[in-house]
Design a protein that fits this description.
128 residues; mainly alpha; 0% strand; elongated
Length: 128
């Protein structure tokens, strides 16, 4: 068993599941979207991005691209949430929550592409 592949797969799947956990729920209800889960998704996605550097294959380049897209959208979502939290009293309103959840939805799509690539790469691997 290749420990490097295990760690890589772990972080790719964890990034997708954390993002999914934040995304799921009523689009405009801030009570069902935990900001700590969003921040955890940002951190784990950044770790997954770092792990994708160094792979010189074509599929590695697409892995990195999907990870960068997810990072960009999750950082934007966290920034919108933090700004709304700092400028309003109480929870962010439905409009802000919808924007944050929509951005995390785009990141979720990028994460799902990354997981799909990981599955394709794993299935097509031939032992030598």
């Amino acid at each position: 068993m290749n420990l490097e592949k295990v760690v890589f797969g772990f972080f790719v799947v964890l990034a997708a599941t954390l993002n999914f956990g934040f995304f799921i729920g009523d689009l405009s209800d801030p009570l069902v979207h935990n900001p700590f889960e969003l921040y955890a998704a940002v951190v784990v996605n950044l770790i997954a991005t770092v792990l994708k550097f160094g792979d010189r294959t074509q599929i590695g380049a697409v892995h990195l691209a999907t990870s960068l897209v997810a990072d960009l959208q999750l950082i934007a979502a966290a920034t919108v949430w933090a700004y709304a939290d700092a400028t309003t009293a109480g929870l962010p309103g439905p409009g802000v929550t919808a924007s944050v959840v929509s951005l995390s939805g785009g990141a979720l799509l990028a994460n799902l592409v990354s997981v799909t690539l990981l599955l394709i790469e794993t299935v097509s691997f031939h032992r030598r």
